[in-house]
Amino acid sequence: MDYSISIDKISQDFWKKNKINTFNIDDYKKKLYVLEMFSYPSGSNLHAGHWFNFGLVDSYARYKKMNGFNVFQPMGFDAFGLPAENYAIKTGIHPKESTMKNIDTMRNQLDNMGAMFNFENEIITCTPDYYKWTQWLFLKLYENDLAYRKNAPVNFCPSCNTVLANEQVIENKCERCSSEIEKKNLTQWFFKITKYADELVDKLNSLDWPEKTKSMQKNWIGRSYGTIVNFSVENSNKTFDVFTTRVDTLMGVSYVVLAPEHPLVLEITTNDYLSNVKNYIDLSSKQSEIDRVSSNREKTGEFTGAYAIHPITNKKLPIWISDYVISTYGTGAVMAVPAHDERDFEFSKKFNLPIFEVIKTETQTNLPITEKGTLINSEIFNNLSSDKAKEEITKHLQSINKGSFKTTFRLRDWLVSRQRYWGAPIPIIYCENCGIVPVPYESLPVELPDDVNFNPNGKSPLETCEKFVNTLCPKCNSKAKRETDTLDTFVCSSWYYLRYVDPQNNEAPFDKDKINRMLPVDKYVGGPEHACMHLLYARFITKALRDMNFLNFDEPFISLTHQGLILGPDGFKMSKSRGNTISPDKYIEEYGSDVFRTYLMFAFTYTEGGAWSDEGIKSIHKFIQRSERLINKGLCVLKDKSFNSINDESEETNLLFALNNAIKMIKTDVEILQFNTCIAHFMKLTNEFSKYLNNNKINCSFLNEFLFNYIKLFAPFAPHFCEYYFGILQEINGKNKTSVFLEDYPKADPKYLTRDEVEIAIQVNGKIRTKIMIPTNSEEETIKNISLSNPEIIKHIDNKKIVKVIVIKNRLVNIVVK
Ligand code: ANZ
Ligand code: ZN
Question: Among all ligands shown, which has an atom nearest to the Cα of 341?
Fold first, then answer.
C-alpha cells in the first residue's frame, strides 16, 4: 500500500486501540509538559497556520517521547468571546450552539492531524465545569485584595447602542457602523496586576523566551526609577507632586505642566484663564491617549494664571496644562526642563517660555545647536555626574520634606469587566444592605443563562435577563442584584494550563500536588501577538496563586517559542475576506497527513513562516514516495529467503556514517524546533540509503538493522508513515506489532562518525581546483593517481603536458602543467 490517508487511519486506529498517547500522571519524574496555545473555535475551521503550530510541535513532543520523556500534550478550546456573540447578533444562532459545533469540527480536524494530544484532558472554557473555577479564581483574587472596582471609561457606539472592545474601535470609529465613538464612565472590575510589576520585570531574566518578547513585555511594564518632587502653589496652601526621571535637571526647571484632568487644575486656575482652560479640558477628553503621546503632534496647552514655587530656589514657575502630560502616568504632572527634554522644548518654543540650561553637572543638554538657554549654575550640586546629582538632589529634597525616590510603572491594572453576554459571569451580588457580596463558593458556578436577548441595547445583555439579575443576598437574604458584566476572556486563558492537569476535579480547580509535579510548562508555543497580554496575565495569575499558597512555582512557562505565520499563496495573511486561506483538509485527503506536516516543516523556518506553495508540497510528496520505495525495496530483500547476502565494508561504513551523522544533526536541530534542517538531514541520509541499495552488494542483517534505525529516526516527523512500516518490519522479524513511539530514539555512535579521512586540496599550477576526501596517510602514488583521475582536474589539465606532480601528504597535491 502506498502512503496515503488510508495509512493515516491504520496508524491512528492503532494508537487509539493501544492507548499509545495516554499520559501516565503517576510517572511524573520524567514528565515533559508541551503546550500549544489553545485556539478559539471560530467558524473557519483549522487552517494551515494551526497545523504549523500544532503539527510541528507534536513532532517535537514525539521526539521527546522517544527520548524517554513522559510527554503531556493537552488540547482544548478558548471558547468564550466576542466573535461568537457578534455572529449570533448577525444570524440569530446562539453562541453556545455555534461554538460547540465549531469545536466538533476542529476536534475532527485535530484527529486527522494524528497528533498525540491528551484528549482525555480536554477543556472548553465556556462549559460550567470550567468557568466555575474561573469564577473561583475571581473570588480568591477579591478575597486577597487583588480585585477591586473603580470608575473607568469604555468605548460606546451611540448608533449600535453598545459598548465596544478596544479592538472594535478603529481610528476612534465603530468597526461596524463607522460612527464616532463616545467615552462613557462605568464602574468596572480590575485585577491588581501592578502589585506584581517588579517581579514581572525581574523574573523575565530567568526565562528561556525570545529576547524580543521579553523586551516587549519589559517595555510594556515600563519600570522607571525616578524622584517625586513636591511643588507648592504660590499664595495658597496647595501643593502637587511631579514624577521625574531626571531630577539632576531640577535647577533648570522653567515652568510646570499639569495633565488637563489633574484634580488641582480647576482649583488653581485664575478667573481670567478659566474659560480657556475649561475649553481645553473638554477638547482633550476626546483625544485618545495614543494620539496625545505621539511625538510628531504640535504641542497645545493653556496657562492657568497660577504659579508654583521651586522647592530649592523658591523661584516662581508658571503652571500650564497640556495634553502631552498623561493623567494616568506618574503623578499626572511634570516639571518642564526645555533644555533637556524634547517635548518641553517644543512646548516652550510654541508658548515662548524660558529655557534654562543646567551646567556644571555632567548633564547633557538636548538643545538644537542653534539654541542657547540661559545658563544655570547648580550650586551645591555642581561638578557631579548625572547619576550622582540625581542621588544628591533627591536626598536633599528628602531632608527638606520636598521629595523622595520613586519607582513608577507604565503597566496599569487589568480591566476585566466586559459588557458582553458570551463570557463567564462575574460572581458578585449587590445587596441594598450589605453592599458588595461575593457569591459563596458553594453556590458556584453562577451559570450563564441561555435565553438572553444579546442584541445591543446600550447595556450589558445580562441586565435584561430578570431571572438572572434578581436574587437574594447570601448574607442577609434580602433583595439583591447580580453583577451583569462578564469576565474578559483573557481571564479564562490566564489559568487554563493549570486546569489541563486535573480537568475533572470537582472539588478544586486543580490538585495542588499534581500541578506542583506537572508544572511549569516545559515548552510553550504560540503566536508572538500575545507578548503583552496573555503571557503577562498568565504570569501574574501564577504568582498570585503562589502567594495564596495554591501552588509553589513562580513562572508558568519556562521555555517559549513563537511559530511564524503561514501566509496565503499571495504572500498576504490568510483571511476569509481575501479568499487566500489554505485549508489542510484537501491536501490531507490527496497526500496524507504526514506529507502535509513534512512539507510545513521543510518549506518554512519554524519561527518565521512564509507563503504557502502548492509546488512545494508536490516535491515533498515525491520525496516521501521515494523514501517509501526504498523502504519497500529493502523489505523485499529481507523477505526474499533466497537472497544472497554480500558484505561490502566500505559501503556499510559510508551508510553508517550518514546514519549517525543524521542522528547527531537532527538531535541538535529538533531541540530548537528547527524542523526544516531535520528534514534536510533525513533527505541526505535517504540519498545514501539509495546508493547502498543500488550497489547490489547488500548484507541482510546490516540492512535489517539499518531499516529499524531509518524508520525510528523519521518517526517523529512522519508518524503515520513510520508507524505503519515499523509494523511491517517487525512482522518480517517475527515480532508482534508494538508502537514505534515506545522505542528509544536512535543515538549517534561516535565510533561511526570519525571517518579516517582527510581533505586534500588539488592545485593545477598553484591554483586550487578541487578538494577531495581520501583515507588518511595514503601513499604518494595512490594520491597522485586519485588526483589525476579526478574529472575536475582532468578538465583543468586539458591536454596540456604534465611537468611535475608534487604531493604533500594529507594536505595538498600540486600538478604543474605546460
Ligand atoms: C524632567 C525631565 C527632564 C524629564 C529631562 C525628562 C527629561 P519615563 O522614562 O517614561 O518614566 N513625565 C512624567 N510624568 C509624565 C506624564 N504623566 N505624562 C507625560 N510625561 C511625563 O519618563 C519620565 C519622564 O517623563 C519624566 O522625567 C517627566 O519628564 C515625564 F531632561 O522630568 B522628566
Ligand atoms: Zn445583604
Answer: 1
| CB-based contact 412:197 (threshold 8 Å) | no
> What is d(CA 677, CA 665) in angstroms, rounded to the nearest whole number?
8
Helix then strand count (H, E) for the chain reads 27, 33
Phi, psi values for residue 781, rounded to 5°: -60, -45
Cβ of residue 243 lying under 6 Å from some atom of ligand 1:
yes
Ligand 2 centroid to Cα of residue 444, in Å, is 18
pLDDT digits (tens, 9 = 90+) for 386-427: 889 899 999 999 999 999 999 999 998 998 998 889 999 999
Peptide bond into 318 cis (omega under 30): no
- Within a 10 A sphere around the Cβ of 656, how many other Cβ atoms? 20
Per the rule left: phi > 0, alpha: psi between -120 and 50, beta: everything else, 743 is: beta
For residue 86, the SS3 value is: helix
Neighbours of 417 (CB within 10 A): 23
Cβ atoms 33, 522 nearer than 8 A: yes
Q: Is 330 in the pocket of ligand 1 (CB under 6 A)?
A: yes
Ligand 1 pocket mutation, candidates 241, 243, 331, 407, criterion most atoms within 8 A of CB: 243
- Kind plus residue range of the DSSP H or E element containing 772: strand 767-775
Q: Going by CA atoms, what residue is nearest to atom 9 of ligand 1?
A: 224
Nearest CA to ligand 1 atom 2: 246
The sign of the dihedral angle between the CA atoms of 615, 617, 619, 625 is negative
How far does the centroid of ligand 1 lie from the alpha carbon of residue 244, in Å?
Answer: 5
User: What does the pLDDT read at residue 175?
Assistant: 75
Residue 152's alpha-carbon distances to 155, 190, 261, in angstroms, are 10, 10, 14
Pairwise CA distance, residues 614 & 612, whole Å? 7
Work out the pLDDT band at 370, boundaries 50, 70, 90: low
Backbone angles phi, psi at 609, to 5 degrees: 70, -160
Residue nearest to atom 20 of ligand 1 (CA): 325
Answer yes or no: is the C-beta of 607 below 6 A from any ligand 1 atom: no
For ligand 1, pick from 224, 246, 331, 407 the residue to mutate: most ligand atoms within 8 Å of CB.
246
Q: List pLDDT tens digits, range 326-356.
A: 998 999 999 999 988 999 999 999 999 999 8
| Residue range 418-477, pLDDT digits in tens | 888 999 999 999 999 999 999 999 999 999 999 998 887 778 899 999 999 999 999 999
Proximal ligand: closest to the CA of 331 = 1
Best residue among 329, 376, 378, 412 to mutate for probing ligand 1's pocket (most ligand atoms within 8 Å of CB) is: 329
Question: Rounded to an integer, what distance in angstroms lies between the CA atom of residue 686 and that of residue 627?
Answer: 7
Q: Alpha-carbon distance 186 to 353, whole Å?
A: 39
Task: Tell me the CA–centroid distance for residue 184 and ligand 1, in Å.
Answer: 29
C-alpha cell at 699: 548484507
Grid coordinates belonging to 298: 504640535
Give the contacts of 591 (CB within 8 A, at least 6 positions apart).
Answer: 4, 617, 621
Q: Pairing mode, if any, of strands 356-359 and 374-377?
A: parallel
Phi, psi (degrees; rounded to nearest 5) at 259: -65, 145
Whole-prediction pTM value?
A: 0.86
DSSP 43: T
Task: Tell me, using a 6 A CB cutoff, whether residue 765 lines ligand 1.
Answer: no
Q: Helices 593-603 and 614-639 sit at what angle, rounded to 10 degrees?
A: 120
- Ramachandran angles phi, psi of 263, nearest 5°: -60, -20
Rounded CA-CA distance 412/817 in Å is 79
Cα 711 from Cα 631, distance rounded (Å): 9
Q: What structural domains and CATH numbers belong to the chain?
A: 224-408 (3.90.740.10), 614-752 (1.10.730.10), 757-817 (3.10.20.590)
Q: Are strands 435-438 and 428-431 parallel, antiparallel or unpaired?
A: antiparallel
Torsion (CA) 115, 117, 120, 125 in degrees, nearest 10:
-120
Say which DSSP state 286 is in.
Answer: T
